[in-house]
Design brief:
It is a single chain. With about 450 residues, the chain is α/β, with parallel strands linked by helices. The chain folds into three domains: about 100 residues, no CATH class; about 60 residues; about 200 residues, Nucleotidyltransferase, domain 5. About 35% of the residues lie in helices and about 10% in strands. It has 18 helices and seven strands. It has a five-stranded mixed beta sheet with strand order 5-4-3-6-7, with helices on both faces. A two-stranded antiparallel sheet has the order 1-2. The longest helix is centred in the middle third of the chain and has 16 residues. The radius of gyration is 35 Å and the shape is extended.
């Protein structure tokens, strides 16, 4: 049975205020009555009276108790009901017994639905959905802390791992692969045990791990946090099963320097052709602007080319409605997302980025590029013959399938085979060269090897 959600806890509190029974509440939230009862018992909180005139906690023995000397220095005549002294009788008297309200001895065991709650002077117990959900999530967090292994299991792991790491310099990955029948935890867990000091190996004994820096979590801003609903990779598979002839376009981003300009790439799986568009920032608004420009430029051809798009879970793609629908709300384009951390589900797009990186090396700024420069890069990339499509170029195959003129309207032109250049020198003065390397000039002549030998 699934755990209670925040909305279900809000519904429980609302129905408690309406004096509904536990059985009625359980039926409304789709849980068993015992689960609802445990939820209320575990997460009810103590509350003082909301009436400001009530400043004392009555004792159950107040009618028979004759003690009046607990606060001898108190100026108040009603010493048991003192409103001046910071100490009250329930903190000083060892015989104090809290009065038990009869309402709390029967279901639902809280005062949420009591009509006298705001004037009652007795101690109260309330069910607060916000506090209940916070306590539930804290319990989940604490349950994941610590190590799920006994001292004997850790000793057995150390007996296997320590000699192989210390004396034979094997990695944890190799140890797990070679001792799969003896090690019952996965590789990631072993690295976590090593970080916690539970494995008797020192960082210097794992040199590769010592060089790795801890990953920093990047803040992610999502336009629509429910964008994946109905757009998962499983839904994409179902869509393609119903429409196997649909044109699949894979969408991704190619970054230069972090915080600088970014490329939006659109890969047509049917012909291996890829388009790229420069963006000043990596956000959802810039993606929306590009698709608006594509709709205006292509006209009727847009609906013929863009039927289904598969992309990753980047924050710049979290506004699917802006991509699927035009300014007037029309359009039949469908957008789907790959599973998290499963970039191989659009492997063709990722692989084609290798050709782009030959001209625009990874990690170097794209700020000096214009869209004309990007069109030049993609013209050379798409004019490069591919073995996977029978040594044809993506440009030629695209024109054979979808007709001529479309690529020209997008700024992509055909390059002669012997003129295709996949080097940073293609961009001339805007050449992007990795630091520490010489400027890449024209290709050496036929006598270059002989001159080098001399």
């Amino acid at each position: 049975m699934s755990h209670l959600t925040g909305n279900e806890r809000d519904q429980i509190a609302k129905m408690l205020a309406e004096n509904k029974s536990i059985r009625e509440i359980a039926k409304a939230v789709g849980k068993s009555p015992s689960s609802v009862k445990r939820e209320i018992d575990r997460h009810r909180v103590r509350a003082r009276s909301l009436n400001r005139l009530v400043r004392y906690m009555p004792c159950a023995k107040c009618e028979t108790c004759g003690r009046r000397d607990l606060c001898r220095d108190c100026p108040s005549k009603h010493r048991r009901r003192c409103s001046f002294c910071s100490k009250k009788c329930w903190t000083l008297c060892k015989d104090y017994l809290e009065y038990a309200c009869p309402t709390l001895s029967s279901p639902p065991f809280v005062c949420n639905g009591c009509q006298r709650r705001h004037t009652c002077r007795w101690g109260k117990w309330l069910y607060d959905p916000v506090a209940a959900d916070r306590a539930y999530r804290e319990t989940l967090r604490e349950s994941r802390l610590g190590v799920n292994a006994t001292e004997g299991e850790l000793a057995a792991l150390n007996e296997i791992i320590v000699p192989l790491v210390r004396w034979k310099r094997q990695s944890l990955h190799a140890i797990v692969a070679g001792n799969a029948d003896r090690i019952t935890v996965n590789e990631k867990t072993l690295y976590r045990y090593a970080d916690l000091g539970l494995l008797h190996v020192r960082p210097c004994e794992m040199p590769r791990k010592e060089r790795f820096r801890p990953r920093k979590a990047k803040p992610v801003h999502k336009v629509d946090r429910k964008c994946r609903e109905g757009r998962t990779f499983d839904k994409f598979a179902e869509f393609m099963a119903d429409k196997p002839d649909a044109i699949v376009v894979m969408m991704d981003s190619v970054e230069g320097r972090r915080g600088g300009k970014v490329l939006l790439t659109l890969f047509f799986k049917s012909c291996n052709l890829q388009l790229a568009f420069i963006r000043d920032r990596n956000d959802a608004a810039s993606v929306k602007e590009i698709f608006a420009w594509l709709r205006d430029t292509l006209g009727e051809d847009f609906g013929r080319l863009f039927i289904v798009i598969l992309t990753d879970n980047g924050s710049e793609f979290t506004d699917p409605e802006a991509i699927e629908r035009g300014p007037d709300g029309s359009g039949s384009l469908r957008l789907f997302y790959c599973d998290p951390r499963q970039s191989q589900q659009k492997a063709e797009c990722e692989k084609n980025h290798v050709e782009i990186r030959k001209i625009l090396p990874k990690g170097h700024p794209l700020d000096g590029l214009s869209q004309d420069d990007v069109n030049l890069v993609m013209s050379h990339v798409n004019s490069y013959p591919r073995k996977s499509i029978a040594d044809k170029t993506p440009f030629e195959l695209f024109e054979d399938i979808y007709g001529k003129g479309i690529l020209e309207s997008l700024g992509i032109r055909k390059i002669a085979p012997n003129d295709v250049t996949l080097r940073p020198s293609l961009l001339g003065n805007k050449s992007i060269v990795p630091p520490g390397r010489p400027l890449i000039g024209p290709a050496p002549g036929p006598d270059a090897s002989r001159r080098k030998a001399d």
